[in-house]
Structures are given as C-alpha cells and as structure tokens.
Q: What sequence folds into this?
C-alpha cells in the first residue's frame, strides 16, 4: 500500500516537485527571493543598530559618567533588537499569507519550511539580545564599575 506523507514530513526537494511546473513554483520562488531580501535587511538593521549604539557609547554625547551611559546602552540594545525583530516577523508573515487561496497549500508549506530555521534563529537572537540588554540596563553601572577594576 502506497502511503502518502504529509507536506510537513516530506523532504523539501520532494515537496518542491509536488508543486509541478505551474504557477506554484513561480509563486514559491518569488516568495523565497523576497524573504532572502528581508533577511539581509534584518542583518543590516541589526548591524546598523548595534554600530549606532556602540558609537553613541564612545561619543558620550550627553557628557555623563561612563557607568550611567553603559546602562543606557543596555536599554538601547533591548529596544532596537525587539523593534528589528518585530519588523522582520511582520514582513515574513506578510510574505507567507494563507489568504492567497489561489496558491496550493503545498506552496505555502514549502516556503514556511524552507525558512523555519531562519525564523527560529532570529527569535533566539532577539531574545538573547533583549535579555543581555535588560541585564546591562538594570545592572550596567555595577557591571561597568566591576569590569573597570
């Protein structure tokens, strides 16, 4: 008896072949290209935010004590990582939209599975940056004094 696998269990290459040669593959390829562009935007925005925060730390535009500015540095890390992640996940949700009824479910499942690890990584990165930023924000003055000595 031939047992059919669920699209969530099939290897990605087999799932891609199930879509056929029609508009399903074209749709999936366009969505994949769009997500790759958004992924690079996510990387750029994270890099830019961290670079901006580090430059503020070294410029010290408010002429405050270094330990006070180090704490504020943590707050900026937390908020920037959450905002960038919010942007990325909203873009991903918009790209993978189930309301496009004209496309077979296989196409949507294929694109979701292809970028599952990317979304998972971005969530872990954001969570770790938010935790690190919050710790630095709350205890940055103490951490800075301890590291300085």
A:
């Amino acid at each position: 008896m031939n047992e059919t696998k669920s699209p969530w269990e099939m290897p990605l290459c087999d799932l891609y072949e199930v879509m056929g040669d029609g508009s399903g593959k074209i749709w999936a390829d366009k969505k994949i290209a769009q997500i790759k562009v958004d992924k690079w935007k996510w990387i750029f925005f994270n890099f830019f935010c961290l670079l901006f925060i580090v430059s503020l730390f070294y410029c010290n535009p408010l002429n405050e004590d270094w330990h006070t500015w180090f704490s504020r540095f943590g707050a900026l890390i937390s908020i920037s990582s959450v905002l960038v992640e919010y942007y990325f996940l909203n873009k991903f949700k918009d790209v993978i939209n189930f309301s496009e009824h004209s496309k077979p479910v296989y196409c949507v499942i294929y694109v979701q599975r292809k970028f599952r690890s990317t979304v998972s990584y971005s969530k872990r990165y954001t969570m770790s940056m938010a935790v690190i930023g919050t710790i630095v924000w709350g205890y940055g003055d103490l951490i800075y004094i301890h590291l300085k000595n």
In short: The chain has one domain: 21-148.
